[in-house]
Amino acid sequence: MGLTADQIRNSLDILAVRDKSFAKALNQVGYPEPRIRPTGYQTLLRTIVGQQVSVAAAASVWRKLEAELGEAMEPAKLLARDFDTLRACGLSRQKQGYARSLCELVENEAINFESLPTDDEAAIDELTRIKGIGRWSAEIYLLFAEGRPDIWPAGDLAVQEGVKRLLGLPERPAERPTRDLAEAWRPHRGAAAIFTWHFYANPAL
Question: How far, in Å, CA of 71 to CA of 45, rounded?
Fold first, then answer.
């Protein structure tokens, strides 16, 4: 499971002592809610479904897939469906390729979501073997589903914008500077990421 409310709060309290920017921002917007997703291949399948479409469109496709495959969404069932059936559910040719890649790895036991490497970079490497799962998607999975405390999705535009506002920077930093700026926040970068989304989305700011 993802980071709990207590874990997030404890990490942010530590960061607030280290960095006055966190202390000031916490006073402004308070603590964020946890972001928790189930472990397992369904969460990554849902990530693939949601790529480059609206939340509403992704939810519609997911409902159609559940109706076709059942709530358990077994990989074998998806692999048994033909192109037109999955297309009718809303999956493009590209997304069908990604979904099949994921399901084949699971069926062949080439990836086991219950025993990913404990080293974060090694786990990211393992997940990005799946077609359609890039570094960002792998990081989001490890943060929201496994609750790894030091995941820092520096390529996320909302994280970059949140860092800009948090630190009072003149412009939004690119991925590399965003990664570098967070080095001082180890090993609490997961909570820092959740907080930057919370800070960025706050309507009062």
Answer: 13
Q: What is the DSSP letter of 134?
A: -
Helix (H, G, I), strand (E, B) or coil at 27: helix
Please confirm whether the linkage preceding 187 is cis (ω < 30° from 0): yes
Amino acid at 180: D
pLDDT surpasses 50 at 169:
yes
> For 34-58, what is the mean pLDDT?
90
pTM of the prediction?
Answer: 0.88
**Per the structure block, which two tokens stand in for 198?**
């919370």
Site of tokens 């890039």: 134
Mean pLDDT for 192-196 is: 97
Annotate 169-203 with DSSP letters as a single string: -SS---HHHHHHHTGGGTT-HHHHHHHHHHHHH-T
- Nearest CA among 113, 127, 151 for reference residue 8: 151
Tens-place pLDDT, residues 65-84: 999 999 999 999 999 999 99
Mean per-residue pLDDT for 131-136?
A: 92
Portion of the chain with pLDDT greater than 90, in percent: 90
DSSP 73-138: --HHHHHHS-HHHHHHTT--HHHHHHHHHHHHHHHTTS--TTS--SSHHHHHHHHTTSTT--HHHH
Q: How far apart are CA 153 and CA 175, in angstroms?
A: 9
Could you give the CA distance from residue 65 to residue 148 in angstroms, rounded to a whole number?
29
Position 162, amino acid = G
Q: Which residue has the tokens 């967070």?
A: 182
C-alpha–C-alpha distance, residues 153 and 138, integer Å: 9
